Amino acid sequence: MGRPVERLAVRYRRMSFDDSEEQLRRQADDVDAICDLHEYRTKPEWLFTDDDESGNEDTRHRQGKGERPGLAALNEVVVELASQGHAVTVVAWVPSRLFRDAGHKEHYFRRWARLGDVQVHTKQGVWNPKDPRDRFVSTIVAGADQYYSDDVREKVVRAHDERRAAGLPATGWPGFGHVRACGCGPKDGRCQATDHDRWIAEPDEAALIRDAVKRLLAGSAGLTTIARDWEARGVQTRLGSSTWRLTSLRKTLLSPRLAGILVRNGTELGRSPAIEAIVDESTFRRLVELLNRRNHGRHSHKAKQLLTGLLVCDVCGGQLNSNVKKGVQIYGCRIDGQCNIKGEAVERVYVDKMFERLGDKRFAAALSRVDDEAEGIMDELRIQEDELEALKAQAHRLPVDVYVAKYDAISTRTAELNRLLPVREETELATGWFGRVSELRRAWDDMPVDEQRALLAAIVGRAIVKPAAKKGQPATDEAVKARLVPLRGAPGTPGPPALPPRR
Question: What's the average model confidence in pLDDT over 80-87?
Answer without folding.
Answer: 90
